[in-house]
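Quick one, probably user error.
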């Protein structure tokens, strides 16, 4: 969640970006090291108290401060830009973001329609609970007003916390100009407090991501059944069928066809690749132009050259594969010896017959041919045929002799039981 917030804030080009951390601070700092500065809230005493922890870091700062929340991941840099424009146009001292929807804080306006104060749900009267305009908790104000407003906060409420929302009341009481930007897209303001909230936000984010890809020229058979992480890049004229999941720092080229139920993790597919159905790319795979991967093929930490094919039921792990290679059904690149992972190289034009095991680390040379059922445990030269399997031996009339023995045994057993 914080990643979405930080990414949107970065796109807004702030002079400084400070994250207030509390619980699990070490994990958060590790995840965002180098991207943000950190302030520490050792006691969790409310939103106003959290902002207070960042103020020492702003001692030498002048300008406006935008206050966001780590559990509200749907807001966009475009919304922040609208806030900045409205603050300038209205000459407001404090600009707040409001929306309609299931948000706790009610926006109380005076008889002139101006913002008067914010009331949290647990402190609201029955009449105030009926107010539809809600406070998102996102504010833009001068750093001076932040300092003054935070200094004025008191913890005389049911929670015994310092509410950042009370800064709005402080500004109104001191005759400052408080304005509100009512956001039409209430989904942007979804706050996440429960797993149900998380599911709603995830659904909304999925729709947003898929809509952006469609606008850029990507086709979906059913966008409601495709799950794409933020940050994934997909080229124009790519077709994605239902059930696909694309995760991490994946890059998909132009004209790619992702058939149903494929999973792609932090991998790269160049132009005109065909994947699936039901194929799995684990992290660090690179499929070059024109590669065709079929059903129930799993690839891990491997590069496949242009035009290489693996139609079905194959595992390719830790391999560097050239162009024009064909993997037969049931092929396994055996990359793990129980202790270490090993890498194999399969050069251009090699043909890997069905049910073969490439036991790493080996090199299969250019245009080499691996016979079906072969266990490759040593290098195969260019243009060579590799055969490594038990020689077939046919025993004539073995089936009829076996059946005769079974019939005799069955008759003897039946006679014995009748006695």
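Nope, works fine. Designed sequence:
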């Amino acid at each position: 969640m914080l990643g979405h917030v930080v990414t949107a804030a970065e796109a807004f080009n702030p002079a400084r970006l400070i994250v207030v951390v509390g619980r699990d601070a070490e994990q958060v700092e590790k995840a965002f090291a180098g991207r943000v500065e950190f302030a520490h809230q050792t006691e969790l005493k409310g939103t106003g108290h959290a902002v207070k922890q960042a103020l020492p870091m702003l001692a030498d700062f002048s300008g406006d401060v935008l206050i966001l929340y780590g559990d509200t991941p749907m807001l966009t840099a475009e919304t922040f830009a609208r806030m900045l424009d409205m603050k300038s146009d209205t000459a407001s001292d404090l600009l707040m973001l409001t929306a309609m929807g299931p948000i706790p804080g009610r926006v109380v306006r005076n008889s002139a329609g101006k913002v008067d104060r914010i009331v949290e749900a647990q402190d609201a009267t029955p009449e105030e609970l009926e107010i539809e305009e809600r406070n998102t908790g996102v504010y833009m104000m001068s750093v001076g007003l932040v300092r003054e407003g935070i200094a004025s906060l008191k913890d005389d409420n049911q929670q015994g916390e310092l509410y950042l929302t009370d800064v709005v009341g402080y500004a109104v009481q001191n005759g400052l100009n408080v304005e509100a930007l009512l956001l039409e897209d209430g989904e942007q303001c979804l706050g996440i407090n429960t797993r149900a909230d998380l599911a709603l936000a995830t659904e909304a984010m999925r729709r947003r991501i898929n809509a952006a890809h469609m606008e850029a020229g990507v086709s979906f058979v059913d966008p409601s059944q495709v799950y794409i992480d933020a940050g994934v890049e997909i080229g124009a004229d790519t077709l994605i069928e239902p059930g696909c999941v694309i995760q991490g720092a994946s890059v998909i080229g132009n004209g790619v066809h992702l058939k149903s139920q494929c999973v792609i993790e932090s991998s790269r597919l160049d132009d005109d690749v065909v994947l699936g159905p039901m194929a799995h790319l684990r992290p660090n795979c690179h499929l070059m132009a024109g590669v065709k991967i079929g059903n129930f093929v799993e690839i891990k930490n491997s590069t496949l050259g242009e035009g290489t094919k693996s139609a079905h039921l194959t595992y390719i792990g830790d391999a560097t594969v050239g162009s024009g290679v064909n993997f037969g059904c049931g092929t396994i690149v055996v990359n793990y010896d129980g202790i270490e992972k090993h890498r194999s190289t399969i050069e251009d034009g090699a043909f890997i017959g069905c049910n073969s095991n490439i036991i790493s680390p080996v090199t299969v040379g250019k245009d080499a041919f691996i016979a079906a059922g072969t266990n490759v445990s040593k290098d195969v030269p260019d243009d060579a045929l590799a055969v490594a399997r038990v020689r077939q031996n046919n025993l004539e009339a073995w089936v009829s002799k076996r059946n005769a023995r079974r019939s005799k045994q069955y008759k003897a057993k039946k006679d014995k039981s009748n006695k």
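Residues 195-386 form a domain with the UDP N-Acetylglucosamine Acyltransferase; domain 1 fold (CATH 2.160.10.10).
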